[in-house]
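Notes from hallway chat w/ T.B., transcribed later so I don't forget. T.B. wanted the structure written out for a chain they're using in a teaching module, and asked if we could keep both sequence and C-alpha coordinates in one place. Agreed to drop them here.
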Amino acid sequence: MSVPTYAQRDQPDGVPPLELTGERTLPDVPAENYWFRRHLAVYEWIAVRVSGLRVIDMACGEGYGSDVLARGAAEVIGVDANPEAHEHARLRYRRPNLRFERDLVETFSTPADAVVFLQTIEHLQDPVAVLEHFRSLIADSAARGSTGAVFVSTPNVLTLAPAGAPRSDNPWHVHEYRAEEFEELCRGTFSSVRLYGLFHARKLRVHELALRAGWDAIHPRLRLTKPFYDRFTPAISAADFALRPAGQADLDRALDFVAVCTP
Protein backbone atom coordinates (compact mmCIF):
# COMPACT_ATOMS: atom_id res chain seq x y z
CA MET A 1 0.00 0.00 0.00
CA SER A 2 1.44 3.35 -1.01
CA VAL A 3 1.12 5.93 1.78
CA PRO A 4 1.64 9.66 1.16
CA THR A 5 4.25 11.32 3.36
CA TYR A 6 2.77 13.66 5.94
CA ALA A 7 4.65 15.11 8.90
CA GLN A 8 3.22 16.44 12.13
CA ARG A 9 2.63 20.17 12.26
CA ASP A 10 3.30 22.72 14.99
CA GLN A 11 5.35 20.59 17.37
CA PRO A 12 6.78 22.15 20.56
CA ASP A 13 10.32 23.50 20.38
CA GLY A 14 12.88 20.72 20.47
CA VAL A 15 10.39 17.95 19.64
CA PRO A 16 11.10 16.24 16.29
CA PRO A 17 7.91 15.72 14.23
CA LEU A 18 7.03 12.20 13.17
CA GLU A 19 6.06 11.21 9.65
CA LEU A 20 2.85 9.35 8.92
CA THR A 21 3.80 5.94 7.52
CA GLY A 22 0.49 4.10 7.80
CA GLU A 23 1.82 1.89 10.60
CA ARG A 24 0.65 4.18 13.40
CA THR A 25 -1.67 7.14 13.71
CA LEU A 26 -0.54 10.62 14.70
CA PRO A 27 -2.03 13.81 16.09
CA ASP A 28 -1.28 17.14 14.41
CA VAL A 29 -1.74 15.79 10.86
CA PRO A 30 -5.03 17.26 9.58
CA ALA A 31 -5.58 14.56 6.94
CA GLU A 32 -5.17 11.89 9.65
CA ASN A 33 -7.59 13.45 12.11
CA TYR A 34 -10.36 10.86 11.60
CA TRP A 35 -8.06 7.97 12.58
CA PHE A 36 -6.43 9.88 15.40
CA ARG A 37 -9.79 10.76 16.98
CA ARG A 38 -11.01 7.19 16.47
CA HIS A 39 -8.09 5.92 18.53
CA LEU A 40 -8.29 8.77 21.03
CA ALA A 41 -11.92 7.94 21.82
CA VAL A 42 -10.84 4.50 23.06
CA TYR A 43 -7.96 5.88 25.12
CA GLU A 44 -10.31 8.35 26.80
CA TRP A 45 -12.80 5.56 27.57
CA ILE A 46 -10.05 3.41 29.11
CA ALA A 47 -8.59 6.36 31.05
CA VAL A 48 -11.75 6.54 33.15
CA ARG A 49 -11.37 2.87 34.04
CA VAL A 50 -7.70 2.97 35.05
CA SER A 51 -7.84 6.03 37.27
CA GLY A 52 -5.52 5.62 40.25
CA LEU A 53 -3.84 2.51 38.81
CA ARG A 54 -0.35 1.65 37.58
CA VAL A 55 -0.65 1.31 33.80
CA ILE A 56 1.54 0.15 30.93
CA ASP A 57 0.66 1.50 27.48
CA MET A 58 2.22 -1.11 25.19
CA ALA A 59 3.19 -0.09 21.63
CA CYS A 60 2.39 3.49 22.62
CA GLY A 61 3.69 5.02 19.38
CA GLU A 62 3.70 8.81 19.40
CA GLY A 63 2.73 8.86 23.07
CA TYR A 64 -0.55 10.81 23.01
CA GLY A 65 -2.50 7.88 24.48
CA SER A 66 -0.06 7.43 27.35
CA ASP A 67 -0.50 11.11 28.13
CA VAL A 68 -4.30 10.73 28.20
CA LEU A 69 -4.04 7.74 30.55
CA ALA A 70 -1.66 9.64 32.83
CA ARG A 71 -4.23 12.36 33.52
CA GLY A 72 -5.83 10.12 36.14
CA ALA A 73 -3.62 7.05 36.57
CA ALA A 74 -1.17 6.74 39.45
CA GLU A 75 1.64 5.89 37.03
CA VAL A 76 1.89 5.27 33.27
CA ILE A 77 4.76 3.74 31.33
CA GLY A 78 4.58 4.10 27.56
CA VAL A 79 6.49 1.31 25.82
CA ASP A 80 7.55 1.33 22.17
CA ALA A 81 10.45 -0.21 20.29
CA ASN A 82 10.68 2.43 17.57
CA PRO A 83 13.55 4.84 18.35
CA GLU A 84 11.99 7.88 16.61
CA ALA A 85 8.61 7.39 18.30
CA HIS A 86 10.25 6.84 21.68
CA GLU A 87 12.35 10.00 21.43
CA HIS A 88 9.38 12.07 20.28
CA ALA A 89 7.14 10.80 23.09
CA ARG A 90 9.83 11.30 25.73
CA LEU A 91 10.35 14.90 24.71
CA ARG A 92 6.75 15.89 24.06
CA TYR A 93 4.73 14.37 26.90
CA ARG A 94 5.97 15.20 30.37
CA ARG A 95 4.15 14.49 33.61
CA PRO A 96 5.51 13.42 37.01
CA ASN A 97 3.62 10.12 36.73
CA LEU A 98 4.54 9.40 33.08
CA ARG A 99 7.65 7.93 31.55
CA PHE A 100 8.56 6.19 28.30
CA GLU A 101 10.67 3.09 27.83
CA ARG A 102 12.10 1.76 24.59
CA ASP A 103 11.47 -1.98 24.54
CA LEU A 104 9.55 -4.75 22.81
CA VAL A 105 6.05 -5.59 24.05
CA GLU A 106 7.15 -9.22 24.28
CA THR A 107 9.98 -8.49 26.73
CA PHE A 108 9.02 -5.44 28.81
CA SER A 109 8.53 -6.89 32.27
CA THR A 110 7.53 -4.24 34.81
CA PRO A 111 4.41 -5.35 36.76
CA ALA A 112 1.28 -3.19 36.60
CA ASP A 113 -2.40 -3.06 37.47
CA ALA A 114 -3.49 -2.59 33.85
CA VAL A 115 -2.01 -3.11 30.41
CA VAL A 116 -3.31 -1.16 27.41
CA PHE A 117 -2.60 -2.55 23.94
CA LEU A 118 -4.48 -0.75 21.19
CA GLN A 119 -4.56 -1.37 17.44
CA THR A 120 -1.47 -3.58 17.48
CA ILE A 121 -2.46 -7.20 18.02
CA GLU A 122 -3.28 -7.47 14.32
CA HIS A 123 0.44 -6.84 13.64
CA LEU A 124 1.64 -9.87 15.63
CA GLN A 125 2.82 -13.27 14.45
CA ASP A 126 2.18 -14.82 17.89
CA PRO A 127 -0.62 -12.90 19.64
CA VAL A 128 -1.22 -15.70 22.16
CA ALA A 129 2.29 -15.43 23.59
CA VAL A 130 1.91 -11.66 23.96
CA LEU A 131 -1.46 -11.94 25.71
CA GLU A 132 0.00 -14.51 28.10
CA HIS A 133 2.88 -12.14 28.81
CA PHE A 134 0.43 -9.31 29.56
CA ARG A 135 -1.49 -11.57 31.93
CA SER A 136 1.73 -12.28 33.83
CA LEU A 137 2.34 -8.53 34.24
CA ILE A 138 -0.95 -8.01 36.09
CA ALA A 139 -0.73 -11.25 38.09
CA ASP A 140 0.17 -9.51 41.35
CA SER A 141 -2.28 -6.62 41.03
CA ALA A 142 -4.64 -8.17 43.62
CA ALA A 143 -1.97 -7.63 46.27
CA ARG A 144 -2.20 -3.93 45.48
CA GLY A 145 -5.99 -3.89 45.76
CA SER A 146 -6.75 -4.07 42.02
CA THR A 147 -8.36 -6.88 40.03
CA GLY A 148 -5.98 -6.28 37.12
CA ALA A 149 -7.09 -5.82 33.51
CA VAL A 150 -5.73 -5.91 30.00
CA PHE A 151 -7.39 -3.67 27.40
CA VAL A 152 -6.90 -4.79 23.81
CA SER A 153 -8.33 -3.26 20.64
CA THR A 154 -8.23 -4.24 16.99
CA PRO A 155 -10.06 -3.18 13.81
CA ASN A 156 -13.07 -5.16 12.58
CA VAL A 157 -12.09 -6.81 9.30
CA LEU A 158 -15.72 -6.68 8.14
CA THR A 159 -15.71 -2.86 8.11
CA LEU A 160 -12.01 -2.29 7.47
CA ALA A 161 -11.66 -4.42 4.34
CA PRO A 162 -13.30 -3.44 1.05
CA ALA A 163 -16.66 -5.12 0.43
CA GLY A 164 -16.13 -8.76 -0.48
CA ALA A 165 -12.40 -8.74 0.32
CA PRO A 166 -11.02 -11.15 2.96
CA ARG A 167 -8.83 -8.44 4.52
CA SER A 168 -7.64 -4.86 4.08
CA ASP A 169 -4.58 -3.89 2.07
CA ASN A 170 -2.64 -2.72 5.14
CA PRO A 171 0.81 -4.32 4.66
CA TRP A 172 1.62 -4.26 8.40
CA HIS A 173 -1.37 -6.39 9.40
CA VAL A 174 -0.63 -10.08 9.90
CA HIS A 175 -4.20 -11.04 10.77
CA GLU A 176 -7.48 -9.08 10.90
CA TYR A 177 -10.30 -10.29 13.11
CA ARG A 178 -14.05 -10.76 13.21
CA ALA A 179 -15.74 -10.25 16.58
CA GLU A 180 -16.14 -13.92 17.48
CA GLU A 181 -12.57 -14.72 16.41
CA PHE A 182 -11.11 -11.87 18.46
CA GLU A 183 -13.13 -12.83 21.53
CA GLU A 184 -12.03 -16.46 21.17
CA LEU A 185 -8.40 -15.35 20.99
CA CYS A 186 -8.70 -13.37 24.22
CA ARG A 187 -10.67 -16.09 26.03
CA GLY A 188 -7.84 -18.51 25.34
CA THR A 189 -5.75 -16.57 27.89
CA PHE A 190 -8.22 -14.78 30.18
CA SER A 191 -11.09 -16.16 32.23
CA SER A 192 -13.25 -13.08 31.70
CA VAL A 193 -13.53 -11.10 28.46
CA ARG A 194 -15.99 -8.24 27.92
CA LEU A 195 -16.21 -7.21 24.29
CA TYR A 196 -17.22 -3.75 23.06
CA GLY A 197 -17.63 -2.24 19.61
CA LEU A 198 -16.67 1.25 18.51
CA PHE A 199 -19.25 3.02 16.32
CA HIS A 200 -19.75 6.37 14.66
CA ALA A 201 -21.76 8.88 16.68
CA ARG A 202 -22.99 12.47 16.35
CA LYS A 203 -21.80 14.10 13.11
CA LEU A 204 -20.02 10.95 11.90
CA ARG A 205 -23.27 9.03 12.27
CA VAL A 206 -25.07 11.71 10.27
CA HIS A 207 -22.35 11.50 7.62
CA GLU A 208 -22.66 7.71 7.58
CA LEU A 209 -26.41 7.97 6.95
CA ALA A 210 -25.78 10.58 4.24
CA LEU A 211 -23.43 8.19 2.47
CA ARG A 212 -26.11 5.49 2.52
CA ALA A 213 -28.52 8.01 1.01
CA GLY A 214 -26.15 8.74 -1.89
CA TRP A 215 -24.00 11.65 -0.72
CA ASP A 216 -20.96 10.20 -2.51
CA ALA A 217 -22.78 10.55 -5.83
CA ILE A 218 -23.78 14.15 -5.16
CA HIS A 219 -20.72 16.02 -3.86
CA PRO A 220 -18.50 15.30 -6.91
CA ARG A 221 -21.17 16.64 -9.28
CA LEU A 222 -21.48 19.79 -7.18
CA ARG A 223 -17.68 20.13 -6.97
CA LEU A 224 -17.93 20.17 -3.19
CA THR A 225 -15.73 17.16 -2.37
CA LYS A 226 -12.50 18.93 -1.42
CA PRO A 227 -14.06 22.00 0.26
CA PHE A 228 -16.42 19.79 2.27
CA TYR A 229 -13.83 17.31 3.52
CA ASP A 230 -11.21 20.01 4.09
CA ARG A 231 -13.60 21.35 6.73
CA PHE A 232 -15.30 18.14 7.88
CA THR A 233 -12.25 15.95 8.59
CA PRO A 234 -10.38 18.39 10.89
CA ALA A 235 -13.64 19.02 12.80
CA ILE A 236 -14.05 15.37 13.86
CA SER A 237 -13.62 14.84 17.60
CA ALA A 238 -13.39 11.84 19.92
CA ALA A 239 -17.03 12.53 20.88
CA ASP A 240 -18.03 11.51 17.34
CA PHE A 241 -17.36 7.88 18.30
CA ALA A 242 -19.13 5.70 20.88
CA LEU A 243 -18.32 2.35 22.51
CA ARG A 244 -21.19 -0.10 22.98
CA PRO A 245 -21.05 -3.51 24.69
CA ALA A 246 -21.74 -6.78 22.96
CA GLY A 247 -25.42 -7.61 23.32
CA GLN A 248 -26.44 -3.98 22.86
CA ALA A 249 -25.02 -3.54 19.38
CA ASP A 250 -24.33 -5.53 16.22
CA LEU A 251 -20.57 -5.99 16.49
CA ASP A 252 -20.35 -7.04 12.85
CA ARG A 253 -20.98 -3.36 12.06
CA ALA A 254 -18.40 -2.04 14.54
CA LEU A 255 -15.35 -0.10 13.40
CA ASP A 256 -13.08 -1.57 16.08
CA PHE A 257 -13.36 -4.06 18.90
CA VAL A 258 -12.19 -3.42 22.46
CA ALA A 259 -11.74 -6.39 24.80
CA VAL A 260 -11.51 -5.86 28.55
CA CYS A 261 -9.72 -8.95 29.81
CA THR A 262 -9.29 -10.07 33.40
CA PRO A 263 -7.53 -13.20 34.76
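Follow-up for T.B.: The domain at 27-262 is CATH 3.40.50.150 (Rossmann fold). Might be a good example for the class.
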